[in-house]
Automatic annotation (TrEMBL):
The keyword Ion transport does not apply. It comes from Dissulfurispira thermophila. This is YtkA-like domain-containing protein. InterPro entries: YtkA-like_dom. Residues 50-128, 191-255 form the YtkA-like domain. The lineage of its organism: Bacteria, Pseudomonadati, Nitrospirota, Thermodesulfovibrionia, Thermodesulfovibrionales. The keyword Signal applies. It comes from the Bacteria.
Length: 273
């Protein structure tokens, strides 16, 4: 009898210890369970679901981000086989990021979200929409500052910008022209440019290296994509793929040309509607 009583006491101590440890990792919010101390937690607008955001790096950064989502329903059960959508929005700028991340369900209410592309520093919101059957609800997570803000000189678009598609490089080494695959260029549409590079005598410049940089001087950010040369289709004619202008307004595209003739840069200005 004494032996059984001592065993009961020992088991009770062990169970109490485990429960204390478990409760230290999980917390209850309006009937929903939060699993990790360092995670972000929110209940959806209509209290249909809870969403817990786990960030492996502990924060969001400018560039590509990966996060995990733990989703429970209003009975605090794992939400499986749901349609999950994650949108990145910049409330101060009044626009979102038009590159959809990849979402993979891992089971047990866990969803991995990969390649959330944030193109510039600033104030972001991640809007998580959960749709299961006839139920749809969303939670908003606020990130007041992603990345380091740098001081940009406020550059207003000058009157009468030159939108010519043929220009001479800054040092006068090259004569460059471009033709977009889509004309007129459409917002939020990935497309290619055909770029023709000649010397000042009109001869084709072959085997050149071309580096591309796009910028919105009034907003202080660049392109959401990284255009690259994919081929030289004929002597001096290069296909640059991956252009995407995600906002209307004044854009500047710089092409740096590197060849045995020298290194020089040409600038093209665009105004997109």
């Amino acid at each position: 009898m004494k032996k059984d009583f001592l065993l009961f006491i020992l088991v009770s101590i062990v169970l109490f210890s485990c429960a204390t440890t478990y409760q230290g990792k999980e917390h209850t919010h309006a009937g929903f369970t939060k699993h990790y101390e360092e995670s972000l937690f929110n209940v959806t607008r209509n209290s249909l679901f809870s969403v817990e955001v786990v960030m492996p790096e502990g924060h969001l950064k400018v560039g590509k981000n990966n996060i995990d989502l733990i989703v429970h329903d209003k009975s605090d059960r794992d939400v499986v086989r749901a349609n999950i959508r994650v949108d990145a929005y910049m409330p101060d700028m009044g626009h979102g990021i038009d590159i959809e991340p990849v979402i993979v369900e891992k089971g047990g209410g866990l969803y991995q979200v990969r390649d959330i592309s944030l193109t510039m520093p600033g104030h972001y919101q991640l809007i998580v929409t959960v749709q299961r059957g006839s139920e749809t609800d969303r939670a908003v997570f606020d990130f007041p500052q992603v990345g380091e803000m740098t001081m940009h000189k406020h550059i207003l678009m000058p009157e009468g910008i030159d939108t010519s598609r043929t220009n001479t490089s800054e040092k006068g080494i090259y004569r460059i022209s471009y033709t977009p695959e889509i004309d007129p260029i459409r917002i939020n549409t990935i497309h290619s440019w055909k770029v023709k590079i000649q010397n000042t005598s009109g001869q084709a410049v072959t085997g050149a290296t071309v580096r591309i940089k796009g910028d919105m001087p009034e907003h202080g950010h660049g392109l959401p994509t990284e255009p690259v040369v994919v081929e030289e289709t004929e002597p001096g004619v290069y296909i640059i793929d991956g252009f995407k202008f995600h906002m209307p307004g004044w854009w500047v595209v710089n092409l740096e040309i590197i060849s045995p003739l020298g290194t020089d840069t040409v600038q093209f200005q665009l105004y997109l509607k």
